[in-house]
Amino acid sequence: MHELVGALRSYAWGSRTALAELCGRPVPSAHPEAELWFGAHPADPAHIRTGDEKRSLLEVVSAQPERELGAAAARFDDRLPFLLKILAAEEPLSLQAHPSAEQAAAGFARENRKQVPLDSPMRNYRDDSHKPELVVALERFEALAGFRDPLRTVELFRELDVAELGNYADLLAAQPDSDGLRTLFTSWITLPPTVLDAVLPAVLDGCVRYLFNTKREFAAEAQTTLELAEAYPGDAGVLAALLLNRITLQPGQGLFLAAGNLHAYLRGVAVEIMANSDNVLRGGLTPKHVDVPELLKVLDFEPIDLPLVLPQPAGDGSVRYPTPAPEFALRRFDLTAGSALVPLTDAGPGIVLCTAGSARLLDGSSEVHLDRGTAAWISATDTDIRAQAADGPTTLFCACLGE
Q1: Could you give the CA distance from residue 57 to residue 67 in angstroms, rounded to a whole number?
Q2: Fold assignment, 324-400
Q3: What local confidence, expressed as pLDDT, does residue 190 receive?
Q4: 16 is catalytic
Q5: pLDDT the model gives residue 341
Q6: Residue 147 has what DSSP assignment?
Q7: Is residue 124 helix, strand or coil?
Q8: 346 touches 384 (CB < 8 A)
Q9: 2-144+249-286 adopts what CATH topology?
Q10: pLDDT of residue 250
Q11: Dihedral-angle region of residue 392 (phi above 0 means left; psi in -120 to 50 means alpha; beta otherwise)
Q12: Nearest 10 degrees: Cα torsion 238, 240, 243, 246
């Protein structure tokens, strides 16, 4: 059991305050800070600290996979199968989806055959893994996720009362299913610039008018459309976002995204856990590479309800966030000051992340102290991990393998 130093990632949509405050650093930060990675992804692995020395977790796992991962080494090809993050979004992320395992393997092999460099901005598949992911809000967290019931979307179009949406509303009303959504999304995301320049301003004007109405059932959707258009003017992804569920997570609530689920995080701070992959297919709301034909291959157009994951008591003092992903599982422990030692896990591999307060972790032979924004690596040889709040109410997230 060792302290794990996260890898800080800076993107334009990140926050200059959230991660700095969480980790006890000066505010504001010099650059927008978007993600803090705790894992062994080759793009930016975390580091194990032993005394004054630091060693990449990727290097540690690769050197002794059976020691660090136990039986999971054979199950996941000697790789830690999950990546744990803290995400801080000040501005909307790109409209995106992730491939299935089969699509990722085929896409990665195809781009390798074409000799597309792994660090090329034109690369779609940076590894051969799928990327199911779970995000758990640390504060109010806003997102778009999954295609809304088409009939509800027709209601939204009618409420906006925009003439330029009339034909599209009729199209979806005549075919209120996944095929209708595919047709409409494909039409919008590939609109010629001259048509987009006529439709999008009319929709934005309709959103402004709607927000002054007394009846505003879709106020959040209209406001989000205006905010996206301000951040990404003239982007077809602004129209496409009208088709998605608008979700607000309260602290402690989760959102699970399976393969093919179109989504965009809008703002907020959250813990995120995913399969150890960096495969992203973008459809707009970004200056990065957008490959519409490839995105259409992976999208799941089946409408879904709000894909919330609510915490469930686990019987050991924690709550768990159930998902079908075999690569990861996530539990949350809320500890009180002066409480007895609480069992976290029988053994690793796992990562324990502190997001509030501070804690002592013990495994019988060693002890690690965690402050906010810090984490510990639990190897397969570490057993009987226990925790205790060291200073006031403390929150720990424990990431481990899925069932």
Answers
A1: 13
A2: Jelly Rolls (2.60.120)
A3: 95
A4: no
A5: 85
A6: E
A7: coil
A8: yes
A9: Jelly Rolls (2.60.120)
A10: 97
A11: left
A12: -40
Q: How far apart are CA 351 and CA 46, in angstroms?
A: 11
Establish whether domains 2-144+249-286 and 324-400 are of one fold: yes
The bridge status of strand 383-389 relative to strand 350-356 is unpaired
Give the integer Cα–Cα distance in Å for 94 and 24.
29
Beta-carbon count within 10 A of 231 CB = 14
Q: Which residues fall within 8 angstroms of residue 239, CB to CB, at 6 or more apart?
A: 188, 189, 191, 196, 199, 200, 203
Rounded CA gap, 359 and 387, in Å? 7
The reported pLDDT for the residue numbered 125 is: 94
| Predicted local confidence at residue 364, as pLDDT | 78
Give me the DSSP letters along 233-279: TT-THHHHGGGEEEEEEPTT-EEEE-TT--EEEEEEEEEEEEES---
Q: Of the residues 123, 282, 331, 332, which is catalytic? A: 282
- The beta-strand segments (E) located in 119-224 are 133-137, 141-147
Residue 153 has a pLDDT of 98
Q: What does the DSSP 8-state code read for residue 163?
A: G
| pLDDT confidence of residue 52 | 83
Report the mean per-residue pLDDT for the chain. 94
> CB-based contacts of 96: which residues, under 8 Å, 6+ apart?
262, 263, 264, 280, 281, 282, 283, 286
At position 180, the amino acid (one-letter code) is G
The structure tokens listed for 276 are 């150890």
Query: What CA–CA distance (Å, rounded) separates 159 from 246?
Result: 16
What tokens appear for 338 in the block? 């002066």
Domain definitions of the chain by residue range: 2-144+249-286, 148-243, 324-400
Non-local CB neighbours of 68 within 8 Å, separated by 6+ positions: 60, 61, 80, 348, 349, 379, 380, 381
Give the chain's end-to-end CA distance (angstroms, integer).
22
Q: What is the pLDDT of residue 43?
A: 87
From the number of C-beta atoms within 10 Å of its C-beta (0-12, 13-18, 19+), residue 81 rates as: buried
Residues in the chain, pLDDT under 70 = none
CA dihedral 150, 134, 280, 126 (to 10 degrees): -150
**Tokens of residue 210, six digits:** 């709607």
